[in-house]
Automatic annotation (TrEMBL):
Annotated HTH cro/C1-type domain residues: 127-144
UniProt keyword annotation of Transferase present: no
Top-rank taxon, per record: Bacteria
Matches recorded under InterPro entries: Chitinase_II/V-like_cat, Chitinase_insertion_sf, Cro/C1-type_HTH, GH, Glyco_hydro18_cat, LysM, LysM_dom_sf
Organism: Fictibacillus phosphorivorans
Protein's UniProt name: LysM peptidoglycan-binding domain-containing protein
Pfam families recorded: Glyco_hydro_18, LysM
Length: 496
């Protein structure tokens, strides 16, 4: 999180699947529609098995390949059984027996088994063309003609066409990828989007920020935990209405004041959890908010399971209203309260989206000067989270701030927080020249003043562009920025 004297939360908010968000190109996601399906190491079913997936699991689609023509044949090897063969190819024992007209279950080494395939068919409609059908099923006209022996010019309505089987490569967990049959996966397009957190400004500046192109979602700080009332509510209906008129979605932030004792007081008591959830639901529905971002930090490790339970309960209450839940998580580190208390896999299953706080590599009180978020550090953080959460559910944090590090003659380091706008102004006023730092993939400036060394690892369009490249590389859902107004308006175009 963004740290002043302590740490101030940064948030990224997700957008529900059914609503369109104006922003960058969508991400392709595959949802397993078969009761079970096998992910292979290549687009050949004879390849090794990566894992077995079950209906309902979703993963980003990396690419698609056509299946190789002809039947899939398995040659029985020592130790093979019908069960093992069927499991390897993601089919049932009965399907294998039926395809090969087997009466019993006995196999012999060298026996050739035909593996059944789930064929996709399309019934031709009056307005259909081969081009239209090929595009709809992500295949080629030549493959349609070859598989069906049809006239390339005239299609007869009512004709059933066999769609050539293909394979999708999915980005799985634990850094793995796997190829699955296209017929076992339902593809969807999900919009990427940009979010900005509303912070530290006046009413007029907030209204102006709502007109920023490239900003899709705004997030005001409305809710915090409280000993007296369990939850403090600070809604702004006027802002919510203005955001809606500007075409922006509103996802309020719900924080825990970074207080582990207060958080334990709420999370460990089922009655307190339900009272908080009831208050949140009432407020979110009344303000017509589309979602909520839960930003609990500095949690006692003993509440690790309680936190997942709370998110599960919150999700259950908000889902009927179409209100989505996103949860902030820190980049993995050794701190038991700030990192170890987060069950990222459990939270990823319970919530709709997980927000990776990709900043504060060097925090405000760090004894060592350095980047707020170097590219290698950010890249590694994404890969660590991808071991537990699918990429299309992850939102990457981008800092619209940096720090000016000041080192005195004794070697003692202190820092001053600088927004992108403030940093650019300082560079102009002091006539500094940016130099590229390969180790962080950022621009860098330094100068001496009053015998002290000043260093800034600059956040600008160059660093933002490289972060967005990571979003595309790892098939993440989108980005967000701390905070709206911290950077020039044109920087948002880099994130589109």
């Amino acid at each position: 999180m963004y740290k002043f004297s302590l740490i101030i939360a940064v948030l990224f908010v997700s957008v529900c699947h059914s609503r369109h968000v104006y922003g960058a190109e969508p991400i392709s996601v595959g949802k397993v529609s078969a009761s079970s399906t096998t992910a292979f190491t290549s687009s050949k079913m004879q390849s090794q098995v990566v894992t077995n997936l079950v209906r309902g699991e979703e993963y980003p689609i990396i690419k698609r390949k056509e299946a190789v023509d002809g039947e899939v044949i398995h040659t029985v090897a020592t130790g093979d059984t019908l069960y093992l063969v069927a499991r390897h190819y993601g089919v049932t024992v009965n399907e294998v027996k039926k395809e090969n007209r087997l009466i019993g279950s006995r196999l012999y080494v060298g026996q050739r088994l035909i593996i059944p395939r789930d064929l996709v068919s399309h019934q031709v409609e009056r307005a259909d063309s081969l081009w239209k059908i090929a595009r709809a099923y992500n295949t080629s006209i030549d493959r349609l003609i070859k598989n069906n022996q049809v006239d390339a010019v005239v299609l007869q309505p009512g004709t059933d066409l066999e769609i050539p089987e293909g394979f999708y490569q999915l980005q799985l967990l634990d850094g793995k990828t796997g190829w699955v049959q296209q017929s076992a996966v339902k593809q969807s397009k999900q919009d990427r989007f940009n979010l900005g957190w509303k912070y530290n400004g006046k009413h007029d500046s907030y209204q102006k920020q709502l007109r920023i192109n490239g900003l899709d979602v705004v997030s005001p700080r409305w809710y915090t935990l409280s000993y007296e009332k369990l939850i403090s509510l600070n809604e702004d209906n006027h802002y919510a209405v203005s955001a809606a008129k500007a075409g922006k979605q509103v996802w309020p932030l719900f924080g825990n004041r970074f207080d582990p004792a207060l958080t334990d007081f709420i999370l460990s008591d089922a009655g307190n959890r339900q009272k908080v959830i009831s208050s949140l639901k009432k407020s979110l529905v009344q303000t017509k908010s589309q979602g909520i971002n839960v930003d609990f930090e500095n949690i006692d490790p003993k509440n690790k399971k309680d936190y997942v339970t709370f998110i599960q309960e919150l999700k259950k209450e908000l889902q009927p209203y179409g209100i989505f839940v996103s949860v902030d998580v820190s980049r993995e580190n050794d701190d038991p309260f700030w990192s170890g208390s987060l069950d990222r896999a459990g939270l990823g299953e319970a919530a709709d989206f997980i927000v990776l706080m990709g900043y504060d590599e060097h925090w405000g009180s760090s004894p060592k000067a350095g980047s707020v978020a170097s590219l290698p550090w950010t890249d590694e953080g994404i890969k660590l989270l991808l071991e537990e959460v699918p990429g299309h559910k992850i939102l990457l944090g981008v800092p619209f701030y940096t720090r000016e590090w000041i080192t005195d003659n004794s070697g003692k380091v202190r820092s001053v927080d600088r927004t992108i706008i403030e940093t650019e102004k300082l560079i102009r006023e002091k006539g500094l020249t940016k130099k590229w730092d390969d180790s962080t993939s950022q621009n860098y400036v330094e100068f001496m003043e009053n015998g002290e060394k000043h260093q800034i690892w600059v956040e600008d369009e160059d660093s933002m562009k490289l972060r967005y490249d990571l979003v595309k590389k790892y098939h993440l859902r989108g980005t967000a920025a701390w905070y709206v107004g911290g950077g020039p308006e044109d920087i948002w175009s880099v994130l589109e």
